[in-house]
Queue: 2 jobs
Job 1
Amino acid sequence: MESEIRVRFAPSPTGYLHVGSLRTALYNYLYARKVKGKFILRIEDTDQARYVEGAVENLIETLNQVGLEYDEGPDIGGNYGPYFQSQRTEIYGKYADELIEKDAAYFCFCTSEDLEIMREEQIAKGEDTRYDGRCRKLSKEQVQENLDQGKPYVIRAKIPKEGEIVFFDIVREKVSIMWETVDDQVLIKSDGFPTYHLANVIDDHLMKITHVIRGEEWLSSVPKHLFLYNAFGWKPPKMCHLPLLLNPDKSKLSKRQGDVAVEDFLKKGYLPEALLNFVALLGWHSKSDKELYSLEELEKEFSLKRINKSGSVFDIEKLNWMNGHYLRELESGYVAIKARPFFIKAGFDINDNEKYLKIIEVVRNRISTLSEITKVAAPFYETIKYSEEDKQIINNENSQRLFSFWLKNIQVLDIITEENINRLLKQSTDELGIKGKDLYFPLRLALFGSVHGPELPVIFDVLGKEEVLGRLSKMLD
Ligand code: GLU
């Protein structure tokens, strides 16, 4: 029987969640759901120098916000914990010793000055810079002597120097890499902490990870990892490296050319639904040309086989389009909840919930991100300021006749209905001879502050009788 499929998202907490990492997390999540396996969150925080206060909390919070639930993880536990690498350091030391015993790793006593000189010499000779393996040659006695003297050391992998390694990657298929291009990777640093490579391999093994799904930038690490699996005598997981994310100019997606932090996208008013849908298509395509997917649909459709080989361009216009789609299509009550912080920040009084919901219904069709929502909704909440051009329209004789007519007729209405408004529009033409732009522009200006905007019955409905009367009478002053 095929054992349970277990995948993991293994971020190093850098302080924010990169959109590329969101994609990695999403693909792991989707694959686990698709095959009814387990999705694990493991925090790779062994690099003490890179410790960022609050980074883990922030990461977990962001995953929660977008709705990527994991089955095991630091905050929820599981059978293979702890899920923080910083809490597993004892485990790594033991395995590093095992590698030394098996002659798959060695102590290296080179100082940072030694390494710097080595580097400079290699650069001067036009060679690739890497560790030249000089401590490989130390005898057992020399090593012991150095250790006894308390000399600082690192532990390095004894990577083969000749031949090539061939492995299979689900996306890249057959990959071969010459061993001579692979460095004698440091496994245990001088502070006693493991490097990513050692901890990652040990944990993937101990956590029974069956598939490693991660960004392409890790492909070149696979030989080091397979070397370790082999040295330990462990079966390696299947490898699946996701294509690079690119800027529109085809350079590697970077902070410099725009936002990359998922938190920032959320803050700017992108909906989780849109972000997930967008990110899902950055490197994966379905059998059909369909582009809009809910998370549930993705869980059914996703397959590792349909991951693209070539890099995916991060097209913000497409994300905007998708976000606009979800703002229009999702339940308006949900959009209202998501929009609330933006209204509060703008200082709009949204206590009248009925009015607020009506406004959401109107304005959500006119934006692509929630950060634009208050600007579009502002005329419903704020006193309108008019330009000289607006004032000309307002003060023109026809407009003034129109305002008086509407003021008089609205006053006598019991309730404002679409029918009422349409009747009054028709009457304006029949009785006052005002039609087209001369009819719509002044009324919209009076009530919404702009000649273009929502349909008049909608504006009337949102504002309500009192507010309409107030705004119309101001026009006559
Ligand atoms: N900690 C690595 C990262 O931050 C994980 C890479 C992997 O998935 O093996 O991306």
Job 2
Amino acid sequence: MHRFRLLALLALLVLAVVVAAPVTPAQSTKVPTAVGTGGGAATVDVLATEAAVEALRGGANAVDAAVVAAAVLGVTEPFSCGIGGGGFMVVRTADGTVTTIDGRETAPQAMRPDSFWEGGAPLPFSEARFSGLSAGVPGTVETWAEALRRFGTMELGEALQPAIEVAREGFVVDQTFFDQTLANVDFFDDVPSTAEIYLDPDGTPRDVGTVLRNPDLARSYQRLALKGAKGFYRGALAAAMVRAVRNPPVAADANHVWRPGVMTMRDVKRYEAPEREPTRVGYRGLDVYGMGPPSSGGSTVGEALNILEGFSLSAADRARAFHLYLEASRFSFADRNAYLADSDYFDVPLAGLLSDGFAAERRALIDPTQAATSPVAPGDPYPYDTAGEASVTAVQSETTTHLTVADRWGNVVSYTFTIESTGGNGIVVPGWGFLLNNELTDFNFDSLTHPNRVEGGKRPRSSMSPTIVLDDGQPFLALGSPGGSTIITTVLQLLVDRLDLGATLPEAIAAPRATQRNTASTLAEAAFISSPVGQELASTYGHVLAPTGEIGAATGIEFLDGGRMLAAAEPERRGGGSAAVVDPD
Ligand code: GLY
């Protein structure tokens, strides 16, 4: 063969091998804590944390970096969050202001209190969840766009670039991802657009260690990069989403019924992510800011802290402190279950719930030596005439994700977002690579009269509790957690452990957890039940502790002296998270 042709053939062969060989994304080392200066981030995923810190290093502020991280999480944590869902962002800006963005999903206008009812009874949770009906109009893209417009320095397109790269090049499937897929296989395999991305051709989850790419999601992000948020709420992507909701794209041999939803293009186009006042309570001389309605996070954490402030808690008697934490949570949850809903639809007595007077009334009901028997009745923050409905509680599963980012200028972001259940409603929008939420099951869809009943245009009550604590106006702590309604108790437990009981932030995040939400027994992790505190709570205080799986995979940042900060992520739960700072000590 002619020498030149031989060389050309060899070059072609080399090219062919390079193209065919799977490009394995670089595997990063993840650590759950990092201390240093220049800004920091903590998320459940190392690629997201690294992308945020890289952005900070390049001059981005905390809001930019939070959007960068969130977009990456939309790729690598698609069963917990993403552009098919919604969330709440609490922002402390460098000028000292604290504000929030409400990116909660919204019910289509045609939804009614009985939309999840058939034959005079509400659907079972799973049937309500895996349907077009459960999807609210997603708020995540508008949240990112609004955050960047108001507080960022980056364009949305720039903030999405790291995520586009991860979606194209892929990420390595780990055991947590495998397990989350496995739990959904029976439904994912009904929906070809979902199965194509998340299942192998034999219908099993993608194997641990393999690389998962999502070019369709890269395409969605690319569209947003070009068109901004309108690229999501109008045009081809919105049309595909509405089609998937109204006519779930299920296979002919699907072994479940997938009920159609009622979302329209008009519902999607009308979506807004309003800026709202944060909740604020004073606690031990600090200011604790959280998310108001439609989240119940800020009000319930705030009420419980107000109750606890009347007790002195000390590490010297950890069991007593935990007894009081569980009781404060029990009574606050009774009120949350009765009075929290979308305040555009129901007159939420927020000021009453967060008042010291109401807290004193509730505190007086707590026996410092003995657990109460649940359900306890809600209190009366104002004359309330449908109190009979108060014990109904929507089912919330234990998913969602939280990220915390801070920069060198004093901007801080505490952002919790979700698609509700792990895997959302199970429907990937065909051609666009993202799962839809099932957030409308966060309504009390089993009640036709509860304040949190289903209504068109309304936002379902949430438990997400992104929190920022200031000390004399300066950032002291920012944190949050996933976990459905256990988010509230996890955030409360973290605050009590850190602020009252002398735990460091990483210790508080790692500690075994218990959650009391006005239920007969207190759910607790096995390590909590077997701990000396757990045993004393049962034997001395009469708490009925019942085992449950992992509670929360929290992240947070604590602000230290001299511009230093400690970023901390969950070390074990959900496979462990990742924390990093720009300039480590
Ligand atoms: N879907 C979980 C929450 O909003 O609390």
